[in-house]
Amino acid sequence: MAWFKIWWGAALLSSIGAAACSGNTQSAGAGGATAAGTGGAAATVTGGTSGAGAGGTSSNAAGAAAGGTSARGALGSPCVSASESDPNFSGFNAGDVNVETAAEDCSSQLCLLNHFRGRASCPYGQSAAAGGCFLPGSSAPVTVAVDPQYQSRKAAIASVCSCHCAGSGPGPYCTCSTGMDCVDLVPDLGLGGAASDLAGSYCIPSGSEFDLSAPAIDCAPPNCGPARPY
Predict the structure, then answer these.
(1) Do residues 13 and 33 touch, judged by C-beta distance below 8 A?
(2) 146 domain residue, yes or no
């Protein structure tokens, strides 16, 4: 996965970003350029590489088909990022938008983490030594502290199978399914390549737009579902 991470100012968040993943697993490094992001605020893009996480694959959030093969989820189905197969991955930041291509959970091969915090596979998080989080579909423990999800940004609406429904490039672009809206999430900073290809709008569940003014209330059992949903 090639990561392009974008930050722009937000009143109550330290950063808002967008990450795009495609191919081999990589993470953001140093360097970059600036451009105008959503709302006209300045954005900084960074690029770089790193090694793949443990296993390099995600568990299937949508479940398994008969015979033990994975059933890929339709648009709007929950998905688990491949990053969650790394026991040292502490989770996502609610200030970011992350786009992961080649996603095994999704028939569209795209998992969208839209202002999602923590791990989809561990809604209540853990302290470094609590032992409440495990790798998806495994009994292997996560070895770092993990923030709980926010009640207003649970994985069911903020970590879902999606597709690229509009943009400034040649496409192809998809049509959102019933119950989903095409929303502009990733600004085009004019850098070309994968960064520009992945800019634009994505399908999200209707009513799940990010609201900066919504109370940031941590999930606590049982208000965000089972402790190990995936």
Answers:
(1) no
(2) yes
